[in-house]
Specification:
216 residues; alpha+beta; Cytidine Deaminase, domain 2; 2 domains; seven-stranded mixed sheet
Length: 216
């Protein structure tokens, strides 16, 4: 009986050591994955899938007050692919200002709208808005408050929509540069502002950008 007990104990010990090794291996893999995610460069390009783009541009067309949304999705190499959104709890929403609770962890981009405000004649720097498409393009900028908020929240991208056709976006490092150099309003790069009838590489059907992983 003693030998049998010893044999059983040995098997259990061997089995226990095997489980322990598997657990250590799992921890090592998880640690390596976390280190990889924490040290990999942030995504440099933003793609908004067309179903999501249609929804947020429809919102932008109908809204007369500023609203904030948290765009969610996945990352595939250097590209962030937004395919959904959440709306944080609103605190203030007026035609020219908004204040909302923070977006959840893993948010790819903060989105808000700049209503056309047809009653205003000029930007804060005194330059005229213009009218029609030109007016919409001139509203597709980051205000000083927008820049301060984006640098504080640190989401990889910022997106602004003006109406059903006009929207633009920035990387966080570009917004940081606006803050460091006291640039306000902060304009988008020419290729980062689009009308709905433009051919934009960063608005694609979901089948073109399958795969990827969520931000931690």
């Amino acid at each position: 009986m003693l030998a049998r007990f010893t044999t059983r104990g040995s098997r259990r010990g061997s089995r226990g050591r095997g489980v322990g090794r598997l657990a250590l291996a799992a921890v090592a893999v998880a640690t390596a994955l976390a280190l990889y995610r924490s040290h990999r460069p942030p995504p440099s390009e933003l793609v908004i899938e067309l179903p999501l783009l249609t929804r947020i541009q429809t919102l932008a067309e109908g809204l007369h007050r500023e609203v904030v949304l948290c765009l969610t999705g996945r990352v595939r190499g250097p590209t962030a692919i937004a395919d959904g959104f959440q709306m944080p709890m609103p605190r203030l929403s007026t035609p020219t200002r908004s204040s909302f609770d923070p977006c959840p962890p893993g948010t790819l981009a903060s989105w808000h709208n700049h209503p056309p405000l047809t009653g205003l004649a000029s930007l804060s720097d005194g330059s005229p808005f213009g009218s029609g498409a030109e007016r919409a393009r001139r509203l597709c900028v980051l205000s000083q408050t927008d820049i301060q908020t984006a640098t504080r929240l640190r989401h990889p991208f910022v997106v602004v929509s003006v109406d059903a056709k006009t929207w633009c976006w920035w990387r966080l490092d570009e917004v940081d540069r606006f803050a460091e150099q006291a640039i306000a309003p902060g304009p988008p790069s020419p290729e980062r502002i689009a009308r709905a009838d433009d051919e934009a590489a960063w608005a694609r059907p979901s089948t073109d950008v399958a795969g990827g992983e969520a931000l931690p």
